[in-house]
TrEMBL record:
This is TIGR04282 family arsenosugar biosynthesis glycosyltransferase. The lineage of its organism: Bacteria, Pseudomonadati, Pseudomonadota, Alphaproteobacteria, Sphingomonadales. InterPro entries: Nucleotide-diphossugar_trans (IPR029044), Trfase_1_rSAM/seldom-assoc (IPR018641). It comes from the Bacteria.
């Protein structure tokens, strides 16, 4: 069996291109600062698991990312295209757990629970309160979980579960967490903008 990978999708915190949905409330610089803080926190959380961490990046290069997040991680540029194409390009080798950097309450406990779940189930999902997920782990490559998805909608989680049930693939659900995507989400975490 291949070694489990933790794959974090993130972008360089360039004002105007990071956390764009927060810009109307915070301005471009402060929205990028929120993204920077969230990414750093997520990386530290993933490091606590002792597993190898792979950063799939956009908006910078390997040098800028290793200067920012450290040279003890693997760095690969994201492929061009939508989220489907970016996930499919990173699907091998499995097992792999995909994460984003939008979940302030993510802890090593959640990631370790996902790692443990993948030892018993084919798929593990960390549901987000908005109908998506903050984490998805697969024991084998399952491209059908990412193809023709209605990303960034409340349909992501229900569609994913429907596909798993259709294919009779066992899965485990983790605790539901909140993502920080919209201005109204910021009230939940005052420390993000302090």
């Amino acid at each position: 069996m291949n070694t489990l990978r933790l794959v974090l999708f993130t972008r360089y915190p360039v004002p105007g291109s990071a956390k764009t949905r927060l810009i109307p409330a915070l301005g471009a610089d402060a929205a990028a600062a929120v993204h920077k803080r969230l990414t750093e926190r997520t990386v530290e959380t993933l490091k606590q698991t002792g597993k190898s961490v792979e950063i799939r990046f956009s908006g910078g290069d390997t040098n800028s990312f290793s200067s920012w997040l450290g040279n003890d991680l693997s760095y690969l540029p994201q492929v061009d295209g939508d989220l489907t194409e970016r996930l499919l390009a990173a699907i091998n080798p499995a097992p792999v757990i995909f994460l984003g950097s939008d979940t302030p309450d993510l802890s090593a406990h959640h990631v370790n629970a996902a790692i443990h779940a993948l030892q018993k189930s084919d798929v593990v999902i960390g549901p987000a309160d908005d109908g998506g997920y903050y984490l998805i782990g697969i024991a084998k490559p399952y491209p059908f979980l990412f193809e023709n998805m209605r990303w960034s909608t409340e349909h992501v989680m229900p569609d994913t579960l429907h596909r798993l049930r259709q294919q009779k693939i066992g899965f485990e659900l983790l605790e539901t967490l909140h993502d920080c995507d919209r201005p109204e989400d910021l009230d939940r975490w005052p420390w993000l903008t302090s």
